[in-house]
């Protein structure tokens, strides 16, 4: 039985993928040392030669590598979930970092809760072109405000949930030319409306790079909005 499919998506990160690959392997090793069977799954979506070389040289023989031609992080994640063999799936982008305990802590916390939820890190640290941090919200706390999702996103895309959750509610492709994007924001609204609580895992951190040319930067510069849902209507 494979407990977790750890999916890292690579595009054109080049040398920046090095620290992400190290973070990916450290979290997997930590989980395996504690008895979890983790499947490393690499999705290289329209990646350049340098990015492919980074993964080929250091990722390890225990990993599956899948190449795709979507040109979109949402569809790359969906494909990763479809190809995954684990009970749970979690994502890492090839310019971001997990805390070493992410896989272990998320699996244990989900087991403790004993019900269908979507998990996120407790803390997000942003570096690069921007520097900031924020605590991920718990949608079951009494001070949680669903209306905030009209103007902002509570959670990023590096979530942890049963594989079936991602298959039932896949990420939607970004359509920047049509004015729609922020696939993580949209997915969070969809799953929350479907009844999934979104909860932070105590003692975990995600470290995310802000850089020119990323999907997030492109969405922000294009001034797009998420697709309408029952929680967000523009």
TrEMBL record:
Residues 25-134 form the Glycosyltransferase 2-like domain. Pfam families: Glycos_transf_2. CDD domains: Glyco_tranf_GTA_type (cd00761). It comes from the Bacteria. Keywords: Transferase. GO terms for molecular function: transferase activity. InterPro entries: Glyco_trans_2-like, Nucleotide-diphossugar_trans. This is Glycosyl transferase family 2.
